[in-house]
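SUBJECT: protein chain
CONTENTS: sequence, structure tokens:
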Amino acid sequence: MRIALGIEYDGSDFFGWQRQPEGRTVQACVEKALSVVADHPVEVVCAGRTDTGVHATGQVVHFDSEAARAMDGWRRGANAHLPEDVRVQWAHPVDASFHARFGATERHYRYIIHNHRVNSPLLRNRVCPIYAQLDVVSMQTAASYLRGEHDFTSFRAVACQAHSPVRTISHLEVSASGDFIYLDVMANAFLHHMVRCIAGVLIAVGRGQQSPGWVAEVLEAKDRRLSGMNGPPGGLYLVAVRYPRQFGLPASSRVPAFV
């Protein structure tokens, strides 16, 4: 049987999602817990491999097992053996054609900026603190240049292993609520560090260091050196992954917000 899981985690104390020879990872914790429940070794495949310090409220994984367990038994059993910073939110049976990574049609990330002159210790590692007042309207204008299909070479890590830098951003919005600014971006797929790079570019515009039109110039240049610093990982959340309706996966996940 192939089973899909929805997973939420606080990435603050993890060296990212992917299992590594050394360092605590989300994948290793999930596989260890599921292996106990299944009574055999379990390997999981995720929708998106998040980096060190990045969080998720809507990560999706799949695994195969011959163990006979109720879906709620997988969820409750895994959570009983997971550390407190990782939780399985749901379990759902899928057929063998389902693939958590290659079957995804859209991924939704949210980047959260706390725009206040004093950083809150209660929000440490959960937001990107920016002390200078940001111009949200300029950031919204800048974001418009990134929507659609583009070559995002200027917005990916040098070590990115994707075969093509072309991606399609179907949705990119900048909104504000109190002292918080939210960047919501949806695409068919993302390059390594792409969302954090977009955040860094929009923050530079919001600070008045660059004009909104500069974003179009960076995109056209296809040169990572022009886009500057990435936003820190603590502000980034994978909030949803979408699949064809035929699989019947739960559509809801928590979208993090602060007031």
About this structure: Residues 145 and 216 are 6 Å apart (CA to CA). The domain at 106-238 is CATH 3.30.70.660 (Alpha-Beta Plaits). The two ends are 42 Å apart (CA to CA). The first strand starts at residue 2 and ends at 9.
